[in-house]
Design brief:
- This protein has about 210 residues and is an alpha+beta fold.
- It is built from 8 helices and 4 strands, in the order βαβαββαααααα.
- It folds into 2 domains: about 70 residues, Glutaredoxin (3-Layer(aba) Sandwich); about 110 residues, Glutathione S-transferase Yfyf (Class Pi), Chain A, domain 2 (Up-down Bundle).
- The protein has a 4-stranded mixed beta sheet.
- Strand 3 and strand 4 form a beta hairpin.
- The structure holds glutathione.
- The site of glutathione (GSH) has 11 residues, from helix 1 and helix 3.
- The site of glutathione has 11 residues, from helix 1 and helix 3.
Amino acid sequence: MKLYYSPISPFSLKALTALHEKGVACERHIIDFGDAEARAAYKKKYPLGKVPLLELDDGYLIPESTIIIEYLETHFDSGTRLIPADPDDARRVRFYDRQFDLYFLNGFGKIFFDARRPEGERDPRGVKAAKSTLDVMYAYLDEHMQKRTWVAGADFSMADCAAAPALAYLRMVYPYDAFKNVVAYAGRLAERPSFAKAWAEAVPVLAKLG
Ligand SMILES: N[C@@H](CCC(=O)N[C@@H](CS)C(=O)NCC(=O)O)C(=O)O
């Protein structure tokens, strides 16, 4: 099995966290998005060119971080169970997984990439909309985390794998200091050994980017 990823990509960090949680070893292949040739070669394998992507030994491709984790959960019973066996509990995990991908991470992407565009190509209206969605999500998560350790039940799950990179990155571009339960949850996620290991790979790459 081979994972195509970028150490700084939040969706890759989500998949890597899951791999560490499950103690599943796999070959790694870093896609350097700054290298046009490498990017073009990767698009021949996966036309969307997005990471993460899991390639099975027979060449079968599994894109999408959530689906990669679903595959790991179905095929490896080692380590942490990231998707509960009970269908209702599993649906709850999937719901929070969606929330982090769609409303937290997409908001991060909008703010982060907009700031890197030349002045005339920026989209202040889109950034404002992303921030107001995040305001809603921060308040919602803060209340939800009042008496919880992990986001979707008593145990660490796929949803926490999604939350960890989202909150680590959002802290940098749209901090949530006013939301104490979110801050505490982000702290627990940062200390979770699986995410800490994945993030440790991202830190030197981020430092180089400045
Ligand atoms: N829904 C996908 C999102 C994957 C995604 O957007 N990956 C970004 C990096 S975090 C990427 O590959 N961007 C490069 C591009 O879109 O060309 C998932 O969950 O895996």
